[in-house]
Design goal:
Bound molecules: 6-O-phosphono-beta-D-fructofuranose
CATH superfamily of the largest domain: Glucose-6-phosphate isomerase like protein, domain 1
CATH architecture of the largest domain: 3-Layer(aba) Sandwich
Number of helices: 21
Structural class: alpha/beta
Strand order of the largest sheet: 1-2-13-12-10-11
Length: about 525
């Protein structure tokens, strides 16, 4: 990939040229909403409430083409080792390639293994669903937790199997509160860890096994493992028939489509899980086939690049107006920030633009009563990504959903439209205020507006749609990473903290001296020791 300086410069010039333009003015064009929306299946992506016009869109597409997005996309799907700091392919897409062709890694078709594991998962899920098991405890963290935990909540209307619980934090409170009240005799523990070495997960797994032993359960029969490390799962004592393996070309934060999704499959059943896979596959096919002008992952990525790397907005909010997607922002935090929070490009040279943005958010309407004040009247612009279903699942509560929809669309409109000082003055005059007090109070009621947002809309949240949404965001992350020139599939940034924690553990335990530690760390360890029994 050559330098993208010309493409970045063109975008910066367009940003400077239009930085004061009111987004609302773009709707003088009656076709704007249609011209700045795209569809795949029943899903609609509306990016018209942004400052992106045809010229800016063309310049963004030029950037994507110059960055080699098409070629890199094809390389990913073909099994090339694009994760080149770890020398691995990136093939989470193979896990949902249900009726596609061969996928070769080092000359070997990986699809027979994928189908075999999926068949084993289906058989085991059916076995558990038909058994006396009442509760499943998934022990994992990061990509071995966030995806299944999010999807279990998202698809609760389909959850007709055992109750699922998710333990991730090494804080003893997490496993204690989770196991409290469970019957060890009817609980299945799934140890989910790609490496089977993550200290939080292995610590929790050992404590869960001790609990099951103490409480009359049978760990020999009530533990399963999801991992690439078959040797370590055997060492832990889990028999091969309850180990569901996957390959290192499935990244942790991209892994819920395979064995890491076992708890979800047990909860909603293999048929609904297949629908989830089909949704992901549909988005894959759209991503591979659609022109950039009609390509939802590309367009979502380009709005992200426009706002983060060109306009300089340091964060973006994911605001699903769906209580069952309340955990989606947490899931996207790892997917996006662990993928694109990088400082150097593939060749080791520093990135030439900012790395990926801070991604955060919460379900609507709750966020409106927490942080929307800042989004509307703070000094920083925070691009928002709204999500809304046309209808909910509770047909007897349809009026609730209509309120939800009205609030979602209203927030997007309010962010764009704002409220002028004249409009604020008029409202204060209606309250009977006059003179300086009217002017002072009016200033507090001004909304600058012109704050960009995009909206993803779909008929209803079901397994297929969730699969589309997750794959959409996986591919938007991929496209942004290609444009930044980084490796979105390693995570070296998590290593230093882990190493220091390992060296600090004996100091905290009191079996090693704090000598050599900085004064703050040593003093904090001293405080902990003085206040510990
Ligand atoms: O956060 C670092 C990380 O390696 C993530 O990428 C991964 O999802 C998580 O830890 C858990 O790793 P494992 O599944 O190997 O336990």
């Amino acid at each position: 990939m050559g330098s993208l300086n010309a493409e970045w410069d063109a975008l910066r010039q367009l940003e400077a040229q239009h930085s004061n333009r009111r987004i609302l003015s773009l709707f003088d064009d009656p076709d704007r909403a249609a011209a700045f929306s795209a569809r795949t299946g029943d899903m609609l992506f509306d990016y018209s409430k942004t400052n992106i016009d045809a010229g800016i869109r063309d310049a963004l597409i030029d950037l994507a083409q110059a960055a080699g997005v098409s070629e890199k996309r094809d390389a990913m799907f073909s099994g090339a080792a694009i994760n080149d700091t770890e020398g691995r392919a990136v093939l989470h897409t193979a896990l949902r390639n249900l009726d596609g062709g061969a996928v070769l890694v080092d000359g070997q078709d990986v699809m027979p293994g994928v189908h075999d594991t999926l068949d084993r998962m289906r058989a085991y899920a059916r076995q558990v669903r038909d058994s006396a098991i009442t509760d499943v405890v998934n022990i994992g963290i990061g990509g071995s937790d966030l995806g299944p935990a999010m999807a279990y909540q998202a698809l609760s209307p389909w959850a007709d199997g055992p109750r699922c619980h998710f333990v991730s934090n090494v804080d003893g409170a997490h496993i204690a509160d989770t196991l409290r009240g469970l019957d060890a005799g009817t609980t299945l523990v799934i140890v989910a860890s790609k490496t089977f070495t993550t200290i939080e997960t292995m610590t929790n797994a050992r404590s869960a096994r001790a609990w099951m032993d103490d409480q009359g359960g049978n760990p020999e029969a009530q533990f399963a493992a999801l991992s690439t490390a078959a040797d370590l799962t055997a060492d832990f004592g889990i028999p091969p028939e309850r180990v569901f393996g996957f390959e290192d070309w499935v990244g942790g934060r991209y892994s819920m489509w395979g064995p890491i999704g076992l708890s979800l499959m047990i909860a909603i059943g293999p048929e609904a899980f297949d629908a989830f896979l089909r949704g992901g596959q549909a988005m894959d096919r759209h991503f591979q086939a659609a022109t950039f002008e009609e390509n939802l992952p590309v367009l979502l990525a380009l709005t992200g690049v426009w706002h983060a790397q060109v306009c300089g907005h340091a964060s973006r909010a994911v605001l699903p107006y769906d209580q069952r997607l309340a955990r989606l922002p947490d899931y996207f935090q790892q997917l996006e920030m662990e993928s694109n929070g990088k400082r150097v490009q593939m060749d080791g040279t520093p990135v030439v633009v900012d790395s990926g943005p801070v991604v955060w958010g919460a379900a609507g309407t709750n966020g409106q009563h927490a942080f929307y004040q800042l989004i509307h009247q703070g000094t920083r612009v925070i691009p928002c990504e709204f999500m809304i279903a046309a209808q909910g699942h509770e047909s007897d509560l349809a009026h609730h959903h209509q309120l939800l929809v009205a609030n979602c669309l209203a927030q997007s409109e309010a962010l764009m439209r704002g409220r002028s000082i004249d409009e604020a003055r008029a409202r204060m005059a209606e309250k009977g205020l006059t003179g300086d007090e009217l002017e002072r109070q009016a200033q507090h009621r001004v909304f600058e507006g012109n704050r960009p947002s995009v909206t993803l809309a779909y008929p209803q949240l079901d397994p297929f749609t969730l699969g589309q949404i997750v794959a959409l965001y996986e591919h938007r992350v991929f496209v942004e990473g290609v444009i930044l020139g980084i490796n979105s599939f390693d995570q070296w940034g998590v290593e230093l903290g882990k190493e220091l924690a390992t060296s600090l553990q004996p100091v905290v335990e009191g079996t090693a001296s704090a000598d050599g530690k900085d004064g703050s760390t040593a003093a904090l360890v001293g405080f902990i020791h003085r206040h510990s029994d």
